[in-house]
Amino acid sequence: MPIKVRIPTPLRKLTKEQEVVELDSCATIAEMLEALEKNFPGIKERICDEKGEVRRFINVYLNDEDIRFLKNRETGIKAGDEVSIVPAIAGG
Amino acid sequence: MFPFSLGEVSRVCLTSCSKTYCAMEKSKALFTGLKCRECGRLYPAVAIHVCEFCFGPLEVDYDYPAIKKLITREKILSRPRTMWRFKELLPIEGEPTVGAQVGCTPLVKADRLAKALGVRECFVKNDTVNYPTLSFKDRVVSVALSRARELGFTTVACASTGNLANSVAANAASAGLKSYVLIPADLEQGKVLGSLVFGTNVVAIHGAYDQVNRLCSEIAGKYGWAFVNVNIRPYYAEGSKSMGYEIVEQLGWKLPRHIVACMASGSLLTKLHKSFNEMVKVGLVDPSEFHIHGAQATGCSPISQAFKANTDIIKPVAHPKTIAKSLAIGTPADGFYAIKSMRETGGSCEDVTDPEIVEGIQLLASCEGIFAETAGGVTVASTKKLVAAGKIPRNESVVLCITGHGLKTQEAIAGHCGQPRLINARLSEFDEKIYQADNKK
Q1: Any idea where the domains of chain B sit in the sequence?
Q2: Would the CB atoms of B214 and A13 count as touching at under 8 Å?
């Protein structure tokens, strides 16, 4: 079973307006980011800074949990999981 | 001047753009568009809130030289006593169509509180009496809904810890706009009823505010709604500046030496900073030293913890645990910038426990007759600590921003203020049980 990745509106130009993309199984968030880049060239640099870290103003969730409460980019993923990429600037 | 041609606008807009496009075409406002606070990229003044390239926050880009030519103290003072007397510095194109009566709340010279805090001079900016829903959120909502109307929206929405929901519901009702407010399911009853009464659609979410906020971020563009603190956030957040402008005017066109504001997302604090800088920039006030201090509840204090650890990396709080529910944002959107504002101005930051919050509420109430909600208790109690620690020198002056009314969070102080003494309607009982009891030597 593939994993699902929810794409935020500002990145949908790169995914041909797809809200959700499916990727073959990836072991970690880091691998998922590489797979995204392979399928949609240019998307990784929008999500990650020059050091390869997820940008300050982006939140990444594995199912319902913020990956910062897990193992960040090394967080494990299994088939059927859903990853959401969400702009951090909202609320308050 | 934008990196897009007008024909490309629909591709950068997060919402249905036919109406926003029209609004932009006829723009003659004193703001020229939106600008990424991180990378400086420019965008048209439509319903978007983050940079497409780096996801940094978008801010309104004003034409300050033009504003400086237009705005004067005399012009401001000649206008009605509302926040809109500073309209040149607020991001709408025409006159406000929602919340035109908001703002100009009292700045109370709080001598008894000053004495209790041990500081020379103290003022309370009393937004517990803001119109119409008794919190500073009426300021941001007035701007957000006026702008949403200019952009052609007919449905408005928000993610809220309570006060914002009340204000969106009330102001949308008066403007004839359809509204949805999304809140954590465990909010105080006063805040839930304070939204329901206006006929809004209240959606309670299982989970904390950050989960509500995430959901709103995901659905913001989906239905063509104006989410005031998501896709309308660049305009919405600017409304907080009006509190700063009013304080400066009420101090006799002087910047406050010290100011203390509570922090949830940290937005209010950053906008107070911006408001003071802008007033200097457009020539309304002479520059002088000012220090901005932040206050949080210890049970949800990601900004305070980062400030005290001398870092700008904010560790999110997964499970906030505080009676100050209006401040319970574990992932504060403007936390990074709030820390920057406090550091740049030589300010500081403090956090307080639930018992200290209750004491803060009682202190303000007993000294000044002002009943603040839990967030106000956080501000008062944190100020007390800051003065005691010498972060606010005792011989200086401080302004406390009190942001919401205590009737909304009665649960927080229930059981802490005593009980009425019950007697029968007989003079003899009053004499004996009340007067004589109170006057025993």
Answers
A1: 6-62, 107-133+240-412
A2: no
